[in-house]
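Weekly structure sync - notes
Attendees: PM, LS, DV (DV joined late)
Agenda: review two folding runs queued last week.

Item 1: First target. Sequence and structure tokens pasted below for the record.
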Amino acid sequence: MKIKFPFFIFLFLLLLNSCAKKISVVDIVDGVGKAIEVAEKKEEPKRILVFSKTAGYRHGAIEGAIEALPSFFKPESWDLEFTEDSSVFNKDLSSNFDVVFFLNTTGDVLNDLEQEYFKNYINNGGAYLGIHSAADTEYDWEWYGKLVGAYFAGHEEIKEGTVSILDKSHPSTRHLDERWKKVDEWYDYDHNPRGEVHVLAVVDQGKMGPDHPITWCHNYDGGRSFYTGMGHTEETYTNQEFQKLLLGAAEWLVGLKDGDCDAGLAVNYTREIIATDIEGATELDVASNGDVYFIERFGKLKKVNSDSGEIDELGTIDVFTGIDNGLEYGLLGMALSPDFDSTGRIYVYYSHPTENHQTLSRFNIVDNKLEISSEVSILKVESQRETCCHAGGSIEFDKNGNIFISTGDDTNPFASDGFSPIDETDGRKPWDAARSSGNVNDLRGKILRIKPLEDGSYEIPEGNLFSSNSGRPEIYVMGNRNPYRISIDQKNNWLYWGEIGPDASEDDDSRGPMGYDEINQARTAGNYGWPFCIANNKPYRSYDFENKISSDYFDCENLKNNSINNTGSINIPAANEAFIWYPYSQSEEFPLFSGGGRSAMAGPVYRYKGQGFPEYYENVLFIYEWSRFWIREVHLDSKGEILHINDFLPNEDFLRPVDMVFDKQGNLYILEYGQSWYGYEDSKISKITYKE
């Protein structure tokens, strides 16, 4: 130990101070001891073993890295020891080093005894940092492969790639921009380690597909592990961003800085089934005390008690379902009032049993029962019951107490060959979506936004799409086909929804583009194109259904609704492009969407509040597919644009997810419809929690 000024001077100053303040000698001695203790702790550097032995290909960058490392691992904080002698892996490894770097090692670099010593080191709380070809090392040692996270499988030529940072709270990555352009040799791995490790960054190069982890960390077998696939070139080690990445990683590995490397591990999430046998599941919501309320299409409202786990049937609303005729009606949407704790009020959207409209109503729950007599009808939306389809029905509150209601286009899609249904033939109104979705004076094929009032009336929030003179003022978004599930980001009130699209499996020169499903984001009010445009503003052609004649393509920037069934303005707002879009087949623009059925739905954007799901999920939009049985994470950047998309808990089986919500404690609830139409044998509600 070295103290930076002579001890007797320090003691003399303390004595002088004690005379002035009448401090006892005991206090002086205690103070001196504490000062010495602080000096010792401050000056003792963390010890790093940098191991660069190669038994295969040798990277030319090793020498450059060895030269560069001391420039940012400063000697007052870090004690670096460089070696290619594997005998250093002995019984003294734990006492000699706080962290071990594998710097571009290759091949079989440790014998059996040295492997055992290294394993014991990790078991006893040691730390490992693997760089680049550390993944090209010890292929016959399974334990090491799990420590690294994945083995090297191949690479392409050195090129520039874009590294997307998925976790900016970790000390290794918090300094980086969300997108980092860097030249390197980008490794492919023998498998995608997501779910086994915590992925910090992905890259857009290589042959691993759209989800290509390149830097990750995890707690493993008693110790800590960090790996980055970057580090092939000598220039990398003089890159300040990369230097800070290694330094932050080392600081986490030795415990100098906090970082959550458990957030991406599937084993840290528990899935509990809290309800089963749900008949025609539609929507759910969670009260502040953890009670889960959910509805069934046939009219029942039920509750899962958070304390006992018992399920109570609170009441039944009389609804029209039209199931015998293939219609899509019933009890469609539900949301607890923002003041539910004090009022017991609940809002539902349902098909009136005798009249041709959908109804948004408010009810009271009193003594654990739904008071049918308390109904206050707030809004009615016309619906035809002559033929199928598309009722929408999702309802959500924003942080200002405004309620959003999604409505379908109320249009039969089966006579338009999977393209745009604008049939103006006499007597064919239900086959014309221009009369609803494209009509500024019709509430169908829209997402509405209103402010419900105490007396059952409502106000129009500022910022909706139309004034009372130019269109229905309730409209926030128009040009929807079937926005079946919506969500509101409670931080900024941005609207998200899944748009279930038409069925054409390929483009047709006489009609227009193939069908696409969409995930959409609306920061402000707007038109999203249907039935004139779809996806990223791919236009349909105007088509005479009676004579089967095609004419011009619609102009998505200058839309005109010339349908004879249109009761509103001919000139309508320009169409906005979709946020995400994908067909039945492999998507070119979003390659993770590899093909299958289509029923796009949008779930919540997670906001971290110090509990529940980890901070890693902050600003992540959850989307899900009823037809394809998956849930995905859409990582958004600071501007709300897509940073990366990957699967959420890919090893879990979600049976047609139909709604999902986070409670106030940050736990995730998923309503699963089950595999049979209107059945209930395998329907369920899952609660997913992060480790405590």
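Item 2: Second target, run right after the first with the same settings.
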Amino acid sequence: MNIHEYQGKALLKEHGVPVLEGVHCTTVEQALAAYDSLGSKVVAVKSQIHAGGRGKGNLYAPESRDLVMEGGVKIAFSKEEVQTYATNILGNILVTIQTGEAGKLVRNLYVESGCDIAHEYYLAILVDRENKSVLIMASTEGGMDIEHVAETTPEKIHKISVDPNAGLLGYQKRDLGLALGLTGAAHKAFSKALTAMYGMFVSSDCAMLEINPLVRT
């Protein structure tokens, strides 16, 4: 079963993973109310579909297939921009690299508080059925198409294999954090977040948990 970003972030928050505040919306009016309630001058307005590549996708009118807006994830600096983006997202077809030409109708969006980002990382936890283990992948090249990173600079993707019976061990968290260039407080925060993410992955019986980007503020 696939879940939307807003649902995944609710689960992450329940398991102690730090996430930005956000509001799930199904109407433009709800998006405007979300902007007011979040109290952030800058927010992200995010299309919610079961496919990746939303930020680089395009939105089209359902009937005419005319281009409505480039990008399914937009940064809004005012309430007026929230209204524009929400209007262009809801009820239209989002086509991404993963949806094919048919695209997916957007019925949900997520309005999320902005933050000052020092660096973006990629992190994924998934079942490795072939090796009967849990594979954790991380990269300093967050916010990008991970398939492109794997193809062009595979050395920037770091992997660890976790024995489900032993669980995620301290040295594995340490080594992965160091591979990402993290030290001090940033390394400690990463280790704590990774522990919580792994706990959620196991307790929720996930097949895959992907965060792109995982940000350092």
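Discussion on item 2: The mean pLDDT is 96.
Action: LS to circulate a short write-up before next sync.
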